[in-house]
Design goal:
single chain, 236 residues, alpha/beta, 6-stranded mixed beta sheet, 4-stranded antiparallel beta sheet, 10 strands
Length: 236
């Protein structure tokens, strides 16, 4: 479904990504791990059209989208849940979810039905549907950010650091939810994550980014036992 082919990305004269390639297909979860500054978020933003690759292409369902605008990419149901959650803090939970469905033409009943599906995954949000998003806990805001993304019925979901700043017990819940979304929605998920062990535990394939390069790639079940990976990312 998604193929990133040998892209180079720059911020001004500074190169951030070097000849990066990866793909997500079927209903797989793909993880991208790496240290701070490795280029993980840059890669996500480039897929979403926020950055434009200086070289290489990005293909989605067989079409080259490298130079598409972000709003056009979103209308194709590629959804990006950004690092840091970025909820609309002055809006209620319900209003945030309505914003997630902005690109769809839905009747009130269809919107309500879509919202109930999301509340089924995140029952805590239903309890707080009239509460301002800015007053939610960090874990609840992360749930809301993902739920808002699900409102537009994505075909591909990009999650950027979903465990960032969350308590360990909440992290476990968050990854359980990601697995559930993948199984029930049958959509590929690309997860960028510093918690390498958790990301590799739920994904089929892993790409390791180091200072803008793909340093390693392979089946997650194999890489999680690789001595180099253990030493660099798993504390082994």
């Amino acid at each position: 479904m998604l193929k990133v082919n040998n892209i180079d990305v720059y911020y001004g004269k500074v190169q951030a990504l070097f000849n990066v390639s990866f793909e997500a297909s079927g209903n797989d979860i793909v993880s991208i791990i790496g240290a701070n500054g490795a280029g993980k978020t840059t890669l996500m933003k480039t897929i979403m059209g926020i950055n434009t690759p200086a070289r290489g292409t990005i293909e989605y369902e067989g079409r080259t989208i490298s130079k598409w605008s972000t709003h056009r990419i979103v209308r194709e149901k590629i959804v990006y849940v950004p690092e840091g959650r970025e909820v609309f803090s002055a809006l209620s939970v319900e209003e945030n979810l309505e914003m997630g469905a902005y690109t769809l033409t839905l009747s009130k009943s269809q919107l309500a039905e879509r919202m109930e599906k999301v509340y089924d995954i995140f029952p805590r949000l239903k309890e707080r549907q009239k509460q301002l998003a800015g007053s939610l806990s960090g874990g609840e805001q992360q749930m809301l950010a993902i739920a808002r993304g699900l409102m537009c019925e994505p075909k591909l979901l990009l999650l950027d650091e979903p465990s960032l700043g969350l308590a360990p017990v909440i992290v476990d819940d968050m990854f359980d939810i990601i697995v559930r979304i993948n199984k029930e929605s049958k959509i590929p998920i690309v997860i960028v994550e510093q918690n390498a062990f958790m990301a590799m535990s739920i994904s089929k394939r892993t790409y390791v980014l180091e200072v803008g390069h793909v340093a390693m790639q392979g089946e997650s079940s194999a890489l999680i036992n690789d001595p180099t990976i253990k030493k660099a990312y798993l504390g082994g």
